[in-house]
Design a protein that fits this description.
The protein has about 375 residues and is an alpha/beta fold. The chain is built from 13 helices and 10 strands. The protein is globular.
């Protein structure tokens, strides 16, 4: 096991653009374990208390990390789970990744494992950002969602401890019908937590999320309106996850033509606020989607377009993850907006939005089907209907 004495120096990176979609992911998620002590109602992974017997070993995980680093433009690597803190070698794996030149982040569960000492060790190992979940404006809502009393308070403690040791943080919020009315409250609550990003996830019915109530299509527009208003006043940046049509909403509010030159379009998410805290992670270019600038490798080495799209495209270590990302049929199809079906295929925003491919698959079993939770009618269809 590597002894960690200091953080490796950050490596200067050439900015990632939409031109890199075909050769390299912008962000890669490595599910280091399925083990987790929480019982979250929306859990994609259906996480369990113990690790899987076929979980990648330390040496296999290191080899996988080396492959992530071998992409033409190495992605930001997110250690996720389950709960990555349940891996005894997690500090070693983080150190190995940052030593290989990868920018790294982590999404730990809010459990007693995330002590202030552990956060300091992660920072010393080179982690650039810690992402924690907050799914309610109060303990009552959040703790029921996470399945463990005290989770809300533990989340707040983790944020404070990370600030004390100088590690930047982001908050992830999953929107369902149970917390839909609290979005404004959550936005204002986290304003005092000195986060750099609020990532708002719109539920995909996969894993335990099958039993959770996703909001109705018209309610997405209400959520988008809240996010847009909050983006005008908060110091942290705001983005959506699996709600790609927020990009359409934001461009409409900005009055920007979707056919504009990509170099003139804003980065993914809403207005980028002035950040008082230095952050090493680049904002994603518009257009990132499942399999398009994004990939996910499971605890056993299965390769997916994202953690919310259970279509296996390959298996590490039998196959190179670089080869799978660049050449597998499902990844190539997901990167081609001209293959989209239904109204998404005729939408003027299909290149920079494209709808949630994961939600389309989970609802229709067709990854190229129209986004089922978008109310927007493309211009082409409106023109046809008026003839």
């Amino acid at each position: 096991m590597t002894t960690i004495n200091h953080s490796p120096a950050p490596t200067a990176k050439i900015p990632y653009t939409a031109l890199d979609f075909a050769s390299s992911p912008f962000v890669a998620f490595y599910e280091v374990t399925r083990a987790c002590d929480l019982v979250c109602k929306h859990c994609r992974a259906c996480a369990q208390p113990l690790s899987h017997p076929h979980e990648l070993t330390n040496s296999q995980s290191r080899a996988l990390i080396d492959q992530f680093a071998s992409f033409p433009k190495p992605p930001t690597l997110v250690f996720t789970g389950g709960d990555p803190m349940k891996r005894a070698d997690i500090f070693d794996l983080v150190w190995h990744a940052t030593s290989a030149g990868l920018t790294t982040a982590m999404t730990p569960s809010a459990t007693p494992l995330v002590t202030k000492e552990a956060i300091k060790r992660l920072k010393d190992a080179g982690i650039s950002r810690l992402a924690v979940s907050l799914d309610g404006a109060n303990a009552t809502t959040h703790d029921v969602f996470r399945g463990v009393p005290g989770s809300f308070d533990r989340t707040m403690e983790i944020l404070s401890n990370a600030e004390d040791v100088g590690l930047t943080t982001q908050i992830n919020t999953t929107v369902t019908r149970r917390n839909l009315s609290q979005i404004d409250e959550i936005a204002d609550l986290i304003a005092s937590k000195h986060i750099v990003l609020w990532s708002v996830f719109l539920l995909v019915p996969v894993g335990r999320g099958l039993a959770e109530q996703r909001i109705r299509p018209h309610q997405y527009e209400e959520v988008f309106d809240v996010l847009w208003r909050q983006s005008q006043k908060q110091q942290y940046a705001i983005k959506t996850t699996e709600a790609h049509h927020y990009r359409r909403f934001a461009l409409q509010r900005l009055g920007i033509d979707p056919d504009a030159n990509g170099s003139n379009l804003p980065s993914q998410g809403s207005r980028v606020a002035s950040q008082p805290i230095k952050d090493r992670i680049q904002r994603a270019p518009l257009g990132v989607n499942d399999g398009k600038g994004c990939m996910f490798v499971s605890h056993t080495g299965a390769v997916y377009p994202s953690g919310f799209m259970p279509i296996s495209a390959g298996k590490f270590p039998r196959q190179s993850i670089v080869d799978v990302y660049q050449h597998s049929e499902i990844f190539k199809a997901l990167r081609n907006p001209d293959l989209l079906e239904g109204k998404c295929g005729q939408c003027e925003y299909r290149t920079i939005c494209g709808g949630s491919r994961a939600r389309a698959f989970c609802v229709t079993r067709n990854p190229l089907a129209a986004e089922p939770d978008c109310v927007y009618i493309p211009t082409a269809l409106r023109t046809e209907s008026s003839c």
